[in-house]
Write a structure and sequence with these properties.
This protein is mostly helical. It is built from 9 helices and no strands. It has helices at about 1-20, 25-35, 35-45, 45-65, 70-85, 90-100, 105-120, 130-150, 160-175. Helix 1 packs across helix 6 (about 90-100) and helix 8 packs antiparallel against helix 9 (about 160-175). The longest helix has 24 residues, at about 130-150. The model has no long low-confidence stretch (mean pLDDT about 90).
């Protein structure tokens, strides 16, 4: 049972790396996983169900990392963590994050991560709930945007330089609401 589910997931991940989501069919997926359709339906209701499981898994991988937004040092560390992780993530994650047809899928992942971050760091900026929501949206959107641009540019900028530029861009905006360590 577990081996079958892993075969389904593996074939699905490979297909995401090769094609747009709307091109993936259960017929081809089951052929690649070397199972029949009935077996697929024992594990998943449809492709969206399989995709949701994958989205939750990716989000949980980020959520389990304990992070803080209490100081600019924390923000700088968080930026480094994000870009180092992103630069070394599997092609699957890069496709989900950067490929235009998969952006809505990544946005759901990012939304889940940022909702968790908001809940676990509520009040850290000393702002109203709605102002804090803007701060978290700013961080989440801009870090993702900068990573996508780096990938679109063929990762020509060395990782350390990417981190340095991203840190300046994000922190200079964040500095207006996060306290400096002294």
């Amino acid at each position: 049972m577990r081996k079958t589910k892993e075969a389904i997931r593996s074939a699905f991940k490979d297909m995401i790396c090769e094609m747009d989501y709307n091109q993936i069919t259960i017929k081809e997926l089951t052929a690649r996983a070397q199972i029949n359709r009935k077996t697929f339906y024992l594990h998943y209701a449809d492709l969206d169900d399989l995709l949701a499981e994958l989205q939750d898994e990716i989000a949980e991988n980020f959520i389990k990392r304990k992070v803080s937004y209490r100081s600019m040092d924390d923000i700088r560390s968080l930026i480094r963590l994000f870009f180092e992780h992103a630069a070394n993530m599997p092609l699957l994650h890069e496709k989900l994050l950067c490929n235009g047809s998969y952006r809505p899928i990544w946005e759901k992942i990012n939304r889940k991560i940022m909702e968790y971050r908001r809940e676990t760091n509520r009040g850290v900026f000393g702002l109203s709930e709605y102002a804090e929501n803007l701060v978290f949206a700013y961080y989440g959107a801009n870090s993702t945007l900068l990573y996508r641009q780096w990938v679109a540019d063929g990762k020509q900028l060395p990782l350390e330089e990417l981190i340095a530029v991203a840190t300046k861009l994000i922190c200079n905006g964040m500095a207006s609401v996060v306290t400096e360590n002294s």
